[in-house]
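step: validate -> pass
step: tokenize input -> pass
step: predict -> running
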Amino acid sequence: MAATQLLRSGTPGAPARPVDPVTPMWRGAVVFRLATLAFVLGVQLVYVSRYPHPVLSWVLVGVVAAWTVVTVAAFSVEAGRRWSLVLTDLVVV
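step: predict -> pass
step: emit ->
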């Protein structure tokens, strides 16, 4: 129990449940990922008319959106918080 703490529930007699102390950081990563997607969409909407291959740029926006769904889903649950996914996230984005 070195990496987790016990948090008492509000119900008397209910067992304490473990809490990951770095959960707020994972939530921050999720917020950052969503902000990144919003930025990508904004840039796409502003500059798509200037791109030589606008269809390809929309495909790449779709890839970023799909990857955002994967990382948000994974980072939102304790079982999905793996260093391999974090490193892959750095490589992909």
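step: describe -> The CA atoms of residues 9 and 85 lie 31 Å apart.
step: cleanup -> pass
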